[in-house]
Structure formats: C-alpha cells, structure tokens
Here is the input.
Amino acid sequence: MCHLPVEVEHRAYWAELEKLRLESFGSAIWYKERTKLWHNKNLRTKELQVGQKVLLFQSRLKLMPGKLKSKWSGLYIITVIHSNRAVEISGSAPNSEPFIVSGHRLKVFRDNTEVCVVEELPLHARHVVT
Here is the structure.
C-alpha cells in the first residue's frame, strides 16, 4: 500500500495554508499602517497655554456607579507646561496646591465669555414666476 499520493497532497495543502497565512499577515500589517496614518492625520493637537482654564479627565470614575456623572472634573488653571507634555495645574482657589498631570488628560474649558460675531443675513421671499 502506497501512501505517497496522500503525503504529497497533505504537503501541498499545508504549503497552500502557509501561503494564505503569509498573505493575510501582509494584509494585516498594511491595514494597521493605513489605520495608524489615518489616525495620526486626524489627531487634533491641543494648544495649551499657561494661565488657561482646563478640565481634568477622571479615568477612575468608571468604577463608580452612576451613568450621568461627568468624567471631566474641576476648573483648573495651567501654571507650567513641561517639554514632555506634562502639565502642572492648580485649582481655581487661590490656596490650592499645584500638581502635575499628563497633557492628554486635559481639555480646554470654554466659558461664555468668548465673543462670537454672527453675521445677519436677511431672508428674502422668493418670487415665483408663473
């Protein structure tokens, strides 16, 4: 009894599977690189400045019950910006102790003191020609 055809077929099957695995690996790397390029292109850079009002992201809040609690806390003022994206902030109270956090955990606080100029456009009734 000769097992040669079965063995050749078995090796051809595994060779084909190896080829598919290598192709899918290449596709996965290509997909990962393209996704990273897209993400980096659409990433917004934060323009943080000393004296700016910011909110701090509370990552530990996820463990607490209550869906409606905000993950952004306080009103802090930036006192120092370090070169490694670390930011020193202090509370809005005058006697609050400053502390250092990652700049990625901060969001610029927008209050209603910013003036926005809105141009008024008059609406004209359309004349229908019959």
